[in-house]
Structure formats: structure tokens, C-alpha cells
Amino acid sequence: MRAAEDAAVAAGTSVDTLMRCAGEGIAAAVRRLAAGSDILVVCGPGNNGGDGSIAASVLHSQGFPVRIAATADPKTPAARNARDRWVGEVEPFAQARPAPILIDCLFGTGLSRALDDDLDTRMTELARDARLVIAADLPSGTDADAATAPDWARHAPVMVTLALGALKPAHVLHPAAAACGAVRLIDLGIDRPAAVTVAGTPDLPCPGPASHKYTRGMVAIVAGHMAGAARLAAVAALRSGAGYVALYGDGGQGGPDAIVHRPFDGDALSDARIGAILIGPGLGRDAVARDRLAALVAADAHPLVIDGDALHLLDLDAPARRTRPVVLTPHAGEFKALFGTPAGSLLDQARSAAARAGAIVVLKGPTTIVASAAATRVHPGGNPWLSTAGTGDVLAGTIAAQLAHPGADPLAAASAGTWLHARAGQLCGASFVADDLANALTPARAGA
């Protein structure tokens, strides 16, 4: 975003113009939320404070009861110009009276350290006495890239964050995302790269009059020591759109009758009708499991989803030697075991891991990140009740079903599967088990 702003200025858009757009956008959002209540805008010395001065001036001109409190005089030319528009008094921040609506314009993305203790304490006091806190771009004291959160914002009663121009990592990565509350985007009209985007409702293929079970995608799943995990993945694959699911090596028992049970046979897994193979849920980590994984990766016959135990057995150099796509689905512990701790935020780490492995990486967590070497899709707002055994197996099966569609783009397929999984979690609500989640994929898929 900083680079995009610099490019806009280099192309002839002034900082004052950008600040006016931001301030007017903030004022428009506050106007819808304030409901005529008294408003206190707290401004820092930089451009975030300038945004606040513009917003306060616009709100005042529209008849809203608004005050400004400042920590210091403006220090940038644009912020000084913005303050010159303000016709009222400026209260000292330390002595400012609270208001039902608090607008935080102390510090934006330029601050990469925690707030000083006295500022954090004062913001805690003002936030405690407010009915609604609205942060301009980020709650002051948030590191935009590392997604750390200030203490005061975590204790605010109701928080709305107005992201200026584009979402930042802190808007979608925890712990900062939780402190941001509800995030709304204020468009500044700035062109910016779209390599990282927040995933929306996917465009999923639907069967037509000429469709049959193989055109909808056949998923093959390799079972292991814990056959129930593979069956969960199989149910998920069927309920999220696959036309045919075969389980190899689970003993032929359990699950819906629609699942085909077969003994494990390497030759059978070369069937050209298979659209994707999933290996890992409940696989185990013995020599047999290792050999089966190595053979599937080396065969390069079908797209692969590698999950669970198989992630601990994977030769990390092997996926890059394939022509068929590979999707890796690690949680945080599996990710660290595979890749260590790459530098940067979780977004940086996922991208780095995808480039290292030559694969799509689905880094599971409260915000799930789906990354290739070139592009990243972010899925914030997961249901915390997904933290129960078997939900990862359901995700793996859901992704495999999307990858099995003929001609599927692997990044889009992994992202679509992640979205369906999250939607099913929302439909389940609370205190569910993984079987419920797998079954909820039917209404999730129907509503997509």
C-alpha cells in the first residue's frame, strides 16, 4: 500500500488529495454509525492525524457534535493543511473528555512499535467510556505487517476499523484481526497489486445435462492406520461436489454406501479417470506409508492433496519435480516441521513455503492462507469451533473434490475448498463434531 501511495503521488496525485479522500471516507462511515451522538476524534502528529482532522471538519460542517483532541501539533505539511480546515478548539489528548463515539486517528501504518504506556492507558480510558470505537486504518499501536495488537484495542467495547485504500495483513491475521473488530474498506482510488486478496464466494462448477460421475471429478483416497479419518475425507469429497469417491485400503467398511471401497493397489491408482488423489488423513508414519507416498509423488499421474501424516513423510524437493499440481495442507505444527520458520508475517511465510515446495500451500489457522509462489488467497473469520479432531480431514477431502474437477486451477480449487469448509463451519454453529461438518458441506455447496 505504501508503494501504491508513492506511485500515485509520483503520477500527480497530491498527498493532500489522498488525505482528503481518506478523511471524507471516514466521515461518511462515521455519519452512518454515530446516530447523532457526540464524537471525539483523537489525532496524532502524522498523516493519520491529518485524516482525522479532515473527518472532523466534514462532520462538523454537517452538523454533528464533534471535537478534536491531539497529542501534538501536526508535523507533516498535509497534516498541517488538514488541521487548518478545523474551526474549533483542539483539546490536549491527556485531558480530553470522553464521548460515546471515539475515532482513533493517532497512528496508522507508519508506527511499527507498541504505543507508549501513557498513550495506551489513556486510549484504554477513552475507549472504556465510549459506546463505539472507530479506528482509521488500524487501531493505533498495531503493527500492520506483523499483526501485533495494542492492549487498549483488545479491551474496547465495540470496534470498527476503516481500512484505507486496501486491507493490510493486520486486518486479517491474528491477534490484530480480532482487535480490529468489524473491518470496512474505504476506497481511495489507488491502483494496487492484487497478488494477495481476501477470498470471496467461489465460482464453483455445477453439473449440466451431459454430466456424469467422472466429469464431476473422481477422488481417490489412500487410507491407513486410522481408517475413520480417510472416511471423513471421503464423505467431505462427495458432499462438496465430487461425482465418485474411492477409498483404497480401509478394509471395506464404514461410511455411506456411495463410497467405493477397494484394497490398496498401486496399479489401480493409475486409473486415468481419477481427477485427484488424497493421501495423509490417518495414514500413519511407518515404512509402508512412506513408500506409498513416495510412489504416488513419483508417478506424477494425477494431482495430489497431501495432508496429515503424509506431510511428515514428504521429501520437500519432490513436488517441484512433478508436472501435476500438489496441494499441501499443514496446520501450524506441520508447517514448522516442513518449512521451519521462514522470515516475515504468516502471509510471507506461506508464500515462501509455496515457492520452496513448488506446490500450493494451505496454511490452516484462525485465518487460513492459500498460497502459490505467485498469488495468495486469504480466508479470515474461521469458526473457532473448528478446533476439533477430524476437521482437517474434512478440509482435505473438500479440497480434493475441487481439484478433481477437469481443468481445475489448483490455487482456485484449494481456495474454493477452504471457503466451502469455512461455510460449513458457519452453518454448524457451535459444539459440533467433524461428521457434522462433513454433512454440512451439502447445504454449503448448495448455497455457494
From TrEMBL:
Domain of life: Bacteria
InterPro entries hit by this protein: Carbohydrate_kinase_pred_CS (IPR017953), CARKD (IPR000631), Nnr (IPR030677), Rhodanese-like_dom (IPR001763), Ribokinase-like (IPR029056), YjeF_N_dom (IPR004443), YjeF_N_dom_sf (IPR036652)
Regions crossing the membrane: none
YjeF N-terminal domain: residues covered: 1-196
Cofactor(s) demanded: K(+); Mg(2+)
Enzyme Commission code(s) on record: 4.2.1.136
Keywords: ATP-binding, Isomerase, Lyase, Metal-binding, Multifunctional enzyme, NAD, NADP, Nucleotide-binding, Potassium
Coiled-coil segments: none
Catalytic activity: (6R)-NADHX = (6S)-NADHX; (6S)-NADHX + ADP = AMP + phosphate + NADH + H(+); (6S)-NADPHX + ADP = AMP + phosphate + NADPH + H(+); (6R)-NADPHX = (6S)-NADPHX
YjeF C-terminal domain mapped to chain residues: 196-448
SUPFAM superfamilies associated with the record: Ribokinase-like (SSF53613), YjeF N-terminal domain-like (SSF64153)
Domain Rhodanese: 24-77
Cofactor note: Binds 1 potassium ion per subunit.
UniProt: (6S)-NADPHX binding residues: A229, G282, H331, D393
Ligand binding (AMP): K364, G365, P366, T367, T368, G392
Function: Catalyzes the dehydration of the S-form of NAD(P)HX at the expense of ADP, which is converted to AMP. Together with NAD(P)HX epimerase, which catalyzes the epimerization of the S- and R-forms, the enzyme allows the repair of both epimers of NAD(P)HX, a damaged form of NAD(P)H that is a result of enzymatic or heat-dependent hydration. Bifunctional enzyme that catalyzes the epimerization of the S- and R-forms of NAD(P)HX and the dehydration of the S-form of NAD(P)HX at the expense of ADP, which is converted to AMP. This allows the repair of both epimers of NAD(P)HX, a damaged form of NAD(P)H that is a result of enzymatic or heat-dependent hydration.
Stated family: Belongs to the NnrD/CARKD family.
Subunit details: Homotetramer.
Protein name: ADP-dependent (S)-NAD(P)H-hydrate dehydratase
Source organism (scientific name): Sphingomonas insulae
